[in-house]
Write a structure and sequence with these properties.
The chain is an alpha+beta fold. It starts with a helix and ends with a strand. The protein is built from three helices and six strands. It is globular and about 40 Å long. Helix 1 packs across helix 3. A six-stranded mixed β-sheet has the order 2-1-6-3-5-4. 32% of the residues lie in helices and 27% in strands.
Length: 107
Amino acid sequence: VIQVTEILENYTIIDESTNNRVSIDQTNIGYYNKVYIIAGSYRTKSNATRQRSKLANKGFSAEVLHETKGLYRVSVASFSDIATAANDFERIKAIDESLDYWLLVKN
């Protein structure tokens, strides 16, 4: 768990229900049961769809998530727990280092 929290210290993590930044530590690491690596957030679905297409052309299994708090997020990967997402984050980031990736978590 310590290794995972150390990895996550360098990344922004947003709770989908509140749209606020959260910190992951030993007390809440198991709280979230769905984790997305996000490569973009857009106010219009057409912009999100355009970004999804660009990412798909780079080899990502990108998807546009449902609108939440006025934003359409483009996910490049999803996981059932935050530890797995943290362990795969660097591999995904290496595919296209020009993007500013962050995590979206929900329970």
